[in-house]
C-alpha cells in the first residue's frame, strides 16, 4: 500500500466538501477499493471515510417503497425483518454476496457506486426499477449505469440512499463463481407496477435489461416462457470461467428458475 490521506467525515456536507477540495475517493465498505489500491489499479491521494455519518445508515419503509441508506451493510439487509417482509428478494440477494466478512463490511452504496460488472446489487436496482438518491439529485436505475465500472455519479457526488419500489413478485438467481461468489451470470426477475423487468449481471461488461425475456414474461409469467427465449451471445463476456455462448445459455435458464422462485 502507498501513503494516502484519510479524512473522516461526520456529515454528508463535510464529505462532499472534502471530495471537492481533494479530488479523492469515497471510502464506504472498502471491499473493492482497498484491493484496487493495493494493486495500484486505483491511486487516490485522499480517502473520505463515510462510516461515521449516521444519516447514511438504516432501512425504512416510505409509502410503497423500501429505502436503504447507502452505508447499510449487506449483512444488515440480509437479516432485516423489514426487508424480508417488504422485498424478500433483497434479503436473499444480500445473503448471497461474497462471504461473511465481506457481507459485514461491504455496503449497498459502495457496491452500486463501484458498479462491478459481476456484482449483485446492480441487478437489484435495475431489475426492481429503483432510484439512487444522492446529495444532489435522484437518479433512476435506467439512467444510473453507464458501462463497466461507470455510473452517472459526478466526482463529488455521494449516494445517500437507495429506494426500491415494492414489487408484486420478484426473485434473483445466479450462477456464482465458487471462489468469489460474484455472478458468472445472475438474473433478477420482477413483476412491478409498471410491468415485468428482467436485469442481468455478470454476463456482459455491465448490468442490462433483457428485453426479449421481459416481452415473453409480460405475456406469460411462467418458467416455460422464460426457457423458450433464445439469447444472442453477441456482446456478452467470455473468460476462463465461461464463454459468451454459455452465458447466453444461462440467462433464460436462470430467469426460469427466478420466475419459479417468485411464484
Structural features, described:
The chain has 263 residues and is of the alpha+beta class. The chain has two domains: 5-165, Uridine Diphospho-n-acetylenolpyruvylglucosamine Reductase, domain 3, CATH 3.30.465.10; 169-262, CO dehydrogenase flavoprotein, C-terminal domain (Enolase-like, domain 1, 2-Layer Sandwich). Helix content is 36%, strand content 25%. The chain is built from twelve helices and 14 strands. It has helices at 12-22, 33-38, 74-79, 81-86, 88-95, 100-105, 108-114, 121-128, 141-144, 211-219, 223-227, 244-262, and strands at residues 5-8, 25-27, 46-49, 59-62, 65-69, 131-134, 138-140, 145-147, 150-151, 159-165, 169-176, 183-192, 195-201, 208-209. The chain has a five-stranded antiparallel beta sheet. A four-stranded antiparallel beta sheet has the order 11-12-13-14, sandwiched between helices. The longest helix has 19 residues, at 244-262. It is globular, with a radius of gyration of 18 Å. The protein starts with a strand and ends with a helix. The mean pLDDT is 95.
Task: Describe how the helices and strands are arranged.
Elements: E1 5-8, H1 12-22, E2 25-27, H2 33-38, E3 46-49, E4 59-62, E5 65-69, H3 74-79, H4 81-86, H5 88-95, H6 100-105, H7 108-114, H8 121-128, E6 131-134, E7 138-140, H9 141-144, E8 145-147, E9 150-151, E10 159-165, E11 169-176, E12 183-192, E13 195-201, E14 208-209, H10 211-219, H11 223-227, H12 244-262
Parallel strand pairs: 1-3, 2-3
Antiparallel strand pairs: 4-5, 5-10, 6-7, 6-10, 8-9, 11-12, 12-13, 13-14
Amino acid at each position: 500500500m502507498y501513503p494516502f490521506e484519510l479524512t473522516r467525515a461526520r456529515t454528508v456536507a463535510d464529505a462532499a466538501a472534502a471530495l471537492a477540495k481533494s479530488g479523492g475517493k469515497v471510502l464506504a465498505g472498502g471491499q473493492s477499493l482497498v484491493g484496487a489500491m493495493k494493486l495500484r489499479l486505483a491511486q487516490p491521494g485522499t480517502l473520505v471515510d463515510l462510516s461515521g455519518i449516521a444519516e447514511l445508515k438504516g432501512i425504512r419503509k416510505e409509502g410503497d417503497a423500501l429505502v436503504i441508506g447507502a452505508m447499510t451493510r449487506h449483512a444488515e439487509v440480509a437479516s432485516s425483518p423489514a426487508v424480508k417482509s417488504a422485498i424478500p428478494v433483497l434479503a436473499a440477494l444480500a445473503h448471497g454476496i461474497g462471504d461473511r466478512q465481506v457481507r459485514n463490511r461491504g455496503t449497498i452504496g459502495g457496491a452500486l457506486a463501484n458498479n462491478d460488472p459481476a456484482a449483485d446489487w446492480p441487478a437489484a436496482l435495475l431489475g426492481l426499477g429503483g432510484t439512487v438518491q444522492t446529495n444532489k439529485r435522484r437518479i433512476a436505475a435506467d439512467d444510473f449505469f453507464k458501462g463497466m465500472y461507470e455510473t452517472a455519479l459526478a466526482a463529488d457526488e455521494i449516494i445517500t440512499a437507495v429506494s426500491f419500489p415494492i414489487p408484486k413478485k420478484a426473485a434473483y438467481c445466479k450462477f456464482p463463481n465458487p471462489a468469489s461468489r460474484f455472478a458468472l451470470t445472475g438474473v433478477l426477475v420482477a413483476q412491478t407496477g409498471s410491468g415485468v423487468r428482467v436485469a442481468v449481471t455478470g454476463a456482459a461488461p455491465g448490468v442490462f435489461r433483457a428485453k426479449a425475456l421481459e416481452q415473453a414474461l409480460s405475456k406469460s409469467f411462467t418458467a416455460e416462457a422464460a426457457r423458450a427465449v433464445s439469447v444472442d451471445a453477441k456482446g456478452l463476456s467470455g473468460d476462463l470461467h465461461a464463454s459468451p455462448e454459455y452465458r447466453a445459455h444461462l440467462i433464460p435458464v436462470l430467469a426460469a428458475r427466478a420466475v419459479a422462485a417468485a411464484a
